[in-house]
Amino acid sequence: MAAAEHRQIPNSSVVRALSIVGDGWVLRLLREAFRGVRRFSDFHERLGIPKAVLSKRLTHLVDSGMFSLYEYQSVPLRHEYRLTEMGLDFWRVLLTMWDWEIRWDPDPGDMRLRLKHLDCSHESRPVSSCSHCAQPLQLADISRRPGPGQGSETMLPPRSRRRMNAGSAKSPGEPTLRSQIIRSVGDRWTPMVMGCIFRGNRRFNEIEAELRIPPYILGQRLDELLELELIERRRYQESPPRDEFLLTAKGLAQHHYTLQLMRWGDRWLAGDKGPPQLMIHNLCGHVFHADLRCSHCGETLERERVQFL
Prior knowledge:
The chain is α+β, with helices and mostly antiparallel strands.
């Protein structure tokens, strides 16, 4: 691999998380695993994924620590894939992705699932809240500071976009993780571009410099984000014409599952040094960890105590 393909970027739990799950097929496999699918043949049947691709993605999830292999038949030898504790802990990310799609997809179609909180027996939506003071998340109330794991690391090139798009088509009859989520999260470059804009680098050359992303790839990702209405273009100079890119309300709303990705990455991928970045909740002064609370009763949602209807 050429040296130019390796890029030094600031340490980031979100980028580390995306190195595992920033793939359309991987997100779909995780979704199916939470629905109880465990066997190769069942994943293949439900997703229509090519067997060679399925084998590679399952191996990736095992190697990453998300799945464990369990033998269920000795002759001939057969294994099933079960979520590990690391994999099970990903449920908050998937739940906030589902909630974002419900709120922002212009045509939710068969995604109209309802979430029931078993503790209060009411329909619920996840509300991102501070784990210390329980106040709902407002981005204006969050500040950032370097964490103990700050520094830089080498980012390997993301998988090609062609391969990402293989996982973007919606499977018949499947209500969750439709194409807008797959298109905006299912490869690593797209959410990294979104994060760059969120941090205030709004111009093409600023994004290119921070991410060291090839210009043609950056152009593709910006065009797609514009098409998805996650960003908007604003002219800041007429001669020569120059534009900058701003997050829309729809784009800003993705921060709910980005914070869950960060929380998950902080727990499982930060190593001994700890989180690279700390989010401070200015209202209470504590480090912000995004809990999910019930929109009806206000209590914390737990994985075992929610149910889709």
